[in-house]
Specification:
195 residues; four-stranded parallel β-sheet
Length: 195
């Protein structure tokens, strides 16, 4: 058995505990843009995983291989494994569980971790918010949600009600109707930091 962490909910999804974090000065770079060379510069940034799953799939299978590299950064958002509406429900549950397991693993190794929250249809609300403590700083992405605003906002509202997050790091421009203490992060800026 691999590392086992305290779980939550019907599926015992690993728990990512809330941590002290000041979300006012957020600078994010994509996991695919991370480098080992400039440790001092790396400490000023957090790492996001709002990229194609194949770019970070190995983090779950072999998290120890990237631990030293990711330890150089100020904080990490948990990997945004896909939870598409047309995926089988078991695969969506697996994606959420992998997201939280990696976050719990990083926390267990002393890293600062912000849970990334994603959902699909209302059926996913039974598990997609599990493994996150209430009143934590969380991250969401609005990338690709412009065509399904109503569906996105329904899930966003469910997240607010269940988690009551202290702050929401919004990767991409917030949609009209999003409430809460939102900190906007521009996607394009996150990709220019290391290029």
């Amino acid at each position: 058995m691999r590392n086992s962490f305290d779980g939550q909910g019907r599926w015992n999804i690993p728990l990512v505990r809330k941590q002290e974090f000041d979300p006012q000065e957020i600078s994010l770079i994509a996991c695919s843009d991370t480098r080992n060379k400039d440790i001092a510069a790396n400490r000023r940034h957090g790492v996001h995983f709002f990229v194609d799953d194949y770019r970070f799939e190995g983090i779950y299978m072999h998290p120890e291989r990237t631990l030293a590299k990711y330890s150089q950064y100020a904080f990490l958002l948990t990997p945004d494994f896909s939870t598409y509406a047309d995926m089988d429900l078991w695969r969506q549950i697996e994606s959420v569980a992998k997201n939280r397991w990696v976050g719990a693993y990083w926390q267990n190794n002393g890293l600062t971790v912000i849970p990334t929250i994603s959902w699909s249809t209302p059926r996913s609300f039974d598990f997609c918010f599990d493994g996150v403590e209430q009143n934590a700083v969380v991250a969401v992405s609005t990338l690709g949600c412009r065509r399904s605003k109503v569906s996105f906002l329904r899930g966003y509202e469910a997240m607010l009600n269940k988690l009551e997050p202290q702050t929401i790091i919004c990767f991409g421009e917030p949609l009209p109707g999003m409430d809460g203490n939102i900190v906007f992060v521009d996607y394009r800026a996150s990709r220019k930091v290391v290029r």
